[in-house]
């Protein structure tokens, strides 16, 4: 006769099962710790992206032609400032918000042409007895970033002092240092010094954007005329040159030189400046009874105001090179 097994009892737990419970509990604690570290890393990356967007905000919203793109930028920043990354309950929400910030940063880079490659920030609380009594808090933020605007690269170091009290919060840039890699654009050197002196970070970004836009437009314009009139148009420094020569194939020694500079005024406004220089043989000058060569630069400026840059340059090329002339 085979004996029956004893009835199950909750008090009887095999030793191997108890050990299994301990292992399972340790695994859960380890997984929870890993999730916490991942959340901290995502929060830190989110704060860095928000700071990058803040540094570009004023440069973007002050762009001209305030159409739909500018409205979208303002609305996006309002949404970002109202959000609180510390309040998210799940890593899924945090990843969703991080993706939103990345898309907005890409939009700003596309709109302004400014790309931020590296960024770091340090924060320091400034406190003393008087500030504690009045409930005032000062926070010094030290920022460092590097990036480029098309072909121009830069490095920035600046400090922002934030003052908080019971009634308001204010902030100001207390120090600004700009390092530009060597370029062929001599106009930028004086502008950078002026921006540093004024500690005007937003003027720097805004003016740099428009300066690069004008440089690209000049390059495209010179390249267009060189391709369409290869025997007449000469660019001593290639398409990136600031000068364009127009030589007559039938009149040796006769040349018109277009000097196209891009200037940045005291307020950071970017303006093109075009001048006309003439190289004419002495014999031709003696025959110029109507002083056409002498008054050519003044007539050129007048023509620019009437026709615009491209039409004026094309009219000069055609007037110098047509068979009738």
TrEMBL record:
Which GO biological process categories is it annotated with? CENP-A containing chromatin assembly
Q: According to its UniProt record, what is one Pfam family this protein matches?
A: CENP-P
One Gene Ontology cellular component term attached to this UniProt record is:
chromosome, centromeric region
InterPro entries for the chain: CENP-P (IPR027801)
Protein's UniProt name: Centromere protein P
UniProt lists the gene as CENPP
